[in-house]
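Record type: monomer structure entry
Structure origin: computed from sequence
Chain ID: A
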Amino acid sequence: MNAALTEEAGTSGTLLTPQKFSTADITDALLVGWRSFRALPAASMAFAGLFALIGLVVIAAVGEFGISPMALPFAGGFMLVGPALLTGFFRLAAILAEGRKPRLFDAFVAFVHAPPGLWLVALLCAFLFLIWITDAAILYTVMIGADHHDLAWFINLQGRAVAFELWGMLMGSVLAFIILAVSAFSVPLLHEHRASLVQAVNASVRAVFSNFLTCIAWGLVLTGATVLSIVLLPLFTVVLPVLAYASFDLYRKVFPLLENGGK
């Protein structure tokens, strides 16, 4: 059935024609995400817990090296690599929609069966993440780094740290929008084998620009909730699955399946 969908997507633009969505659809998607999480909390929290553990190690390392202001750029950087990691949650959501009970193992199976195009998107996300962290580190060195920590340096540290975070968010927002446009809808399209890499990325970019303001609003919701939950790390194991399931529901609104329910 996946092969049939992919073939039809290649010969007809109807499947890959993005539909409009509104802020009300975003609210509905978040409610669906919450209901999906409540239907399978154990598998959702266990899978998200793996990423929370990685985040804990990173934040601990940042504190250990005495560069605490870099914690926020690392937290925000998750928005660059996060989309490529959601395929496991998409698999859990699809199994739940079929009326079956998914297991944690199913989330990992999704990566095993992921098409090459999805891995290429993941590599792009990782590359942009490295650019982001490198730029943030350079900015940190210029605005905060110093060879001596005298009293005057500590007095001015707070103001410099705030300025660093603001400039860092400004730089990161550009990369975040690129990732949003490229991966927001291409990852689930590739996950469901509904398009090739080029088709999926093209469809995702068209969907974002045809729903520009609502996609910006959705991106702000994703960023704000994710960064806040990383700062309050235990919350991350709930927020990440809810946002992932909400993203999958929103994708299904923008790129609905065939009327006969084929997948």
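Annotation 1: The chain has one domain: 2-7+20-254.
Annotation 2: Residues 186 and 200 are 5 Å apart (CA to CA).
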